[in-house]
Amino acid sequence: MRQLRHPLSGSVYEVEDALVRVTRQNGQSGLFNPDGTWVSGDKFSPDPHVCLWVGGPQLPSRHQVAMQSKETGEDLFVPTSGYVASSGGKQ
């Protein structure tokens, strides 16, 4: 189960049946969607960024992607933004 303690508030964010349970230090607890909207329980405002980070889609690690590209022979790290790092010189 994915779980994270908020570094500032101390609230605990954990995934529960595709929802995020947020438990505050004062004992209040509520269920929220990954976008931070209230579903049930105590009604308060959680950190929507942490809700999304804990309850949103989990991307594969670079290691998992590298292993997959090694198996399939495809380069899965193709830049899509068009950004090219420069050497600091004028263009």
What would your notes on this structure say?
The protein has 91 residues and is α+β, with helices and mostly antiparallel strands. It contains two helices and five strands; from the N terminus they run E-E-E-E-E-H-H. A five-stranded antiparallel sheet has the order 1-2-3-4-5, covered by helices on one side.
Tell me briefly what this model is:
The protein has a five-stranded antiparallel beta sheet with strand order 1-2-3-4-5, covered by helices on one side. The protein has helices spanning 48-55, 62-72, and strands spanning 3-5, 12-16, 19-23, 29-32, 38-41.
Task: Outline the secondary-structure elements.
Layout: E1 3-5, E2 12-16, E3 19-23, E4 29-32, E5 38-41, H1 48-55, H2 62-72
Spell out the key features of this protein.
91 residues; alpha+beta; five-stranded antiparallel sheet
Strand order of the largest sheet: 1-2-3-4-5
Number of strands: 5
Largest sheet: 5 strands, antiparallel
| Overall form | elongated
Beta-strand level of the residues, as a percent range?
15-25%
Could you list the spans in which at least 5 consecutive residues all have pLDDT below 50?
A: none
Give the termini distance in whole angstroms: 49 Å
What number of domains? 1
Spell the H/E element sequence: EEEEEHH
Radius of gyration: 19 Å
Number of helices: 2
Please identify the structural class as seen in this structure. alpha+beta
